[in-house]
Amino acid sequence: MAQRTEIVFTDDLDGGPADETVRFGIDGTQYEIDLSKPHAGELRSALEPFIASARRVTAAGGGSRRASRPAARRGPNPSDVRAWARSEGSRSRTRAASRPSWWSSSRPPGSSAALDLEPALG
Question: 40-76 burial, b if ≥16 CB within 10 A, otherwise e?
Fold first, then answer.
């Protein structure tokens, strides 16, 4: 026995036949609605003045008029710490592989407190 499955595309406004799915977004929420050609045209016409004045936003979140700035760095600059460590006599070339004696008891340039990274690394 043969079976036939039929998918009926229905206009979400009036229950009649739909011709397309229209996707749009507002206030951070994305929507889609199945509409006939006349209803899709009505929606596009209603949104047209707003779209004409709006900025397009990319998926990565671009489109903002504000200039972006790099994230604020917390703590001392790592290259300054390494330079300071070399000046204090450290010969270690690997980072965090072997901790010199000054690791948690000294203040490198730019820091406001002694480095104590044992809990974070342990």
Answer: beeeeeeeeeeeeeeeeeeeeeeeeeeeeeeeeeeeb
pTM, to two decimals: 0.45
Q: Is 33 helix (H, G, I), strand (E, B) or coil?
A: strand
**20-53 classified as CATH 3.30.60.230:** yes
Environment class of 18 (CB within 10 Å of its CB; exposed 0-12, middle 13-18, buried 19+): buried
- Domain spans of the chain, in order of start: 20-53
For 8-51, what is each residue's pLDDT tens digit?
889 999 999 999 999 999 998 999 999 999 999 999 999 999 99
Q: Which residues pair with 24 in a beta bridge?
A: 31
